[in-house]
Design goal:
mainly alpha; two-stranded antiparallel ribbon; 4 strands; membrane; transmembrane helix; YhhQ; transport
Length: about 240
């Protein structure tokens, strides 16, 4: 064996690719999981203060009618804010596309699961259909609202950061939420109005405004937590330049 053969001979260890030590993969995983879980939770309708009635002008404040994903879906926007603030628009866009693909894959898998022939002992076919069955119109509404809303949320935050740099984080978080959540809510309701029982213009306006205000309020309430998470990641992300 020549010296050149010895130099090119691989060692006895297997070869593997290096995994990034940053937090980006973890946030992408949480982001995607949040979207999937919240869309399943959204199959249940939820009513708060069902015995109460409160209106402010044309808006019906009580009872509060929403879906079961109300407490989890805003988390996707919070995680989107962290991704945009720390890693920028291109990296956040990649996470959004991954989440979009995961939602489509889940919808296909649920459809296939329902269509598969049931075993004789399985008695929950209709219950399964009611929980994970996806109406094409609702699926289109959810995907369109998510894609546009998340993109606008990220773009708005990054554009504001270009002007404010590391100052006024609160303005970036609130500003991006206002733009992204409003677009998400408006697009979803515009496409899915008939499928979710909205038949009048006043109900449509009420749904959009109340849903938008609720999601924005959640962002404001959890902002101290968002601040801490962003500060933690910035200090420990080796490639972030303060």
């Amino acid at each position: 064996m020549t010296a050149s053969d010895q130099q090119t001979k691989p060692d006895d260890h297997a070869t593997f690719a290096h995994v990034s030590r940053g937090y980006y993969p973890t946030f992408v995983a949480l982001f995607t999981a949040t979207l999937l879980i919240s869309n399943i939770c959204a199959t249940k309708g939820v009513a708060f203060f069902a015995d109460s009635s409160l209106t402010v002008g044309p808006l019906q404040i009580l009872p509060v009618i929403t879906d079961g994903g109300f407490f989890l879906f805003p988390l996707a926007y919070i995680l989107g804010d962290v991704l945009s603030e720390v890693y920028g628009f291109k990296s956040t866009r990649r996470a959004i596309y991954l989440g979009f693909g995961a939602l489509i894959l889940a919808a296909f898998c649920f459809w296939l699961l329902i269509e598969l022939p049931s075993a004789d002992f399985y008695e929950n076919q209709e219950a399964l259909r009611s929980v994970v069955g996806v109406y094409p119109r609702l699926l289109l509404a959810g995907l369109a609202g998510y894609l546009v809303g998340q993109m606008l949320n990220s773009v708005t935050l990054v554009l504001i950061k270009e002007r404010t740099k590391e100052k006024h984080l609160w303005a970036r978080l609130i500003g991006s939420t206002i733009v992204g959540e409003f677009a998400d809510t408006l697009i979803f309701c515009s496409i899915a109005a008939g499928a979710i029982g909205i038949s009048t213009w006043s109900d449509f306006v009420n749904y959009v405004i109340v849903g938008f205000l609720w999601k924005t309020l959640v962002e404001v309430l959890v902002m101290p937590i968002t601040y801490r998470v962003i500060a933690y990641v910035k200090k420990r992300e080796p490639t972030y330049q303060l």
